[in-house]
Specification:
Layout: E1 5-9, H1 14-24, E2 28-33, E3 44-46, H2 50-57, H3 61-66, E4 73-77, E5 83-88, E6 102-104, H4 105-116, E7 121-124, E8 128-133, E9 138-142, E10 148-150, E11 152-155, H5 162-167, E12 175-188, E13 196-202, E14 206-212, E15 218-226, H6 231-234, H7 242-253, H8 260-269, E16 274-281, E17 287-288, E18 291-293, H9 308-325, H10 330-345
Helix pairs in contact: 1-4, 1-9, 2-9, 7-8, 9-10
């Protein structure tokens, strides 16, 4: 019997985690990533609940904690920067706004990439354009590379998943808008920034969040604007270039107060600016035939829920576990995966970790 092969679209978080566990089961994986290289920037994220256990089982917890931002907590401030309320890290349980382990998305992606680069085939600067599932194999056409055939395809390509669009087309691309838009970028750190995050709310549903970086030389900025009243001005952002998006943010936020002048001036010079709509992904199914979705592609609780990364890690672990246990009966494995992840998709965070059949011998 030949070694099964699986294509994973997306080299961020869920994709490499899934690949790591599939390798433990002797399944060959190819990870294709649209970006020309590993995306190093990104927002601060944390790892909570079941996902912590998954990372510890991978023996990567020390690598993750070594890259922690060391953020000490959150301050709510007024337009003059004066503290109105303080919320330090809950060091005992890690369930405060700032987790006891807070890490930059790019740093976490690097940890998972380093753990899989020798056991998975990585293809950068390419993406899937067509998927043909004949019930026995899945043939994939790529934007640049030659056509290839796999036993299974996994979409781990984020909230606006191309794999989901090709296999499970949905109204509004499967997105449920939260009527909020946000921009992420880094700016040079100032001496007064400190190790606490600073959150400022301005009239008009607007906010600035400044967070310390783990290197100490930069501060991470989050700009956000909320409300359906803004939709006509900002919802078309995917059609804009990055300079045009920056100009739009300046138009919408320049009168906010706090440190908005510094933030916008540095935004214009930043080379890691990224903008997105805050939305949820709750498709009626997250697999069809021999194609499965994992992480934000299949169940995105939204980037502001604090649970997106954790759900993605746990979902990747569950998917790999059920595929490992099904003995090539992929429909059976995907059915078990759906059954296991539906309660998580509904955000039942009270569940204890449920070990997939494929890994019960590993714990």
């Amino acid at each position: 019997m030949s070694q099964p092969s699986i294509l994973i679209s997306g080299g961020g978080i869920a994709g490499p985690v899934c690949a790591w566990w599939l390798h433990q089961a002797g399944i060959k994986t190819t990870i294709i990533e649209r970006a020309p290289e590993l995306r190093k920037a990104g927002q601060g994220i944390d790892i909570r609940d079941q996902a912590r256990e998954v990372v510890k089982l991978m023996e990567l917890w020390e690598s993750v904690t070594a890259k922690s931002t060391k953020e000490k907590g959150l301050l709510f401030v007024d337009s003059q920067g004066k503290t109105c309320a303080s919320f330090p890290v809950d060091e005992k349980h890690g369930n405060s706004f700032t987790s006891d382990v807070e890490i930059i998305r790019g740093d976490l992606a690097q940890v998972f990439y380093d753990a899989t680069k020798e056991t998975s085939e990585y293809i950068f600067d390419d993406h899937v354009t067509e998927i043909e599932d004949d019930g026995k194999k899945v043939t994939c056409t790529f934007a640049k590379g030659p056509q290839r055939t796999f036993d299974l395809v996994i979409g781990a390509d984020g909230m606006r998943s191309k794999v989901r669009r090709l296999t499970i087309p949905l109204e509004n691309d499967g997105l449920s808008s939260c009527a909020q838009w946000t921009a992420y970028f880094t700016i040079p750190a100032a001496p007064h920034d400190g190790q606490f995050a600073k959150w400022y709310n301005a009239p008009g549903g607007r906010l600035i969040l400044l967070r310390p970086d783990n290197g100490g030389g930069t501060t991470r900025v989050y700009l956000a604007i909320t409300g359906t009243v803004h939709a006509s001005k900002i919802a078309h952002y995917p059609t804009l270039s990055v300079p045009e998006q920056k100009k739009l943010w300046r138009q919408l936020t320049s009168d906010m107060g706090f440190e908005i002048t510094r933030v916008l001036d540095e935004m214009d010079r930043s080379d890691d600016f990224y903008m997105q709509e805050i939305a949820q992904v709750k498709p009626p199914q997250f697999s069809r035939g021999r194609v499965a979705l994992v992480g934000d592609a299949g169940y995105c609780p939204s980037p502001i829920s604090g649970m997106g990364t954790s759900v993605a890690i746990y979902g990747a672990y569950c998917l790999a576990g059920e595929l490992a246990a099904c003995g090539g009966e992929w429909e059976v494995g995907l059915k078990r995966y759906r059954e296991k992840m539906l309660p998580i998709r509904l955000m039942d965070r009270s569940r204890d970790i449920d070990i997939p059949v494929g890994w019960r011998g590993e714990v």
